[in-house]
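Cross-check.
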Amino acid sequence: MRRIIGIQTHHSVNLDDASRFGVNMLTALEATLKRTGDPEIEALLDELRPLVRQIGVARTAAGLRLKMHQRDADFKRYVDGDLPWPDELEEGFLPRCSCDDRCLFHDVGRGTFEDDCNCDRVCGQHGEAEAA
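Predicted model, tokenized:
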């Protein structure tokens, strides 16, 4: 199994995807309408356009909240998956498994020992049991 250095993504990433997919849908339906003139396709477009705009608004709001979190003292812990993002549900949160993470300092040769070595870090999900 290939070890990775993982992060816990913020839900704004999912909204980025939803926005991109929505715009792709619009583009495909507009091309279909141009070729067929089908009134059913036009009705779909009339329903989809406001939804894609609403997704864009939600994406922008989530992105602004993410920027605000970057000032938080616990930001690194959110990214590392030790804590849930403040604007996401705590219920059901599990710390991200870091058992197979590579060490940025020793394995990758980046950063500093003090800031980036995670060799002795205990997995937040499994504790000492699987740490090594």
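The two ends are 15 Å apart (CA to CA). The chain has five helices and no strands. Passed to J.P. for a second look.
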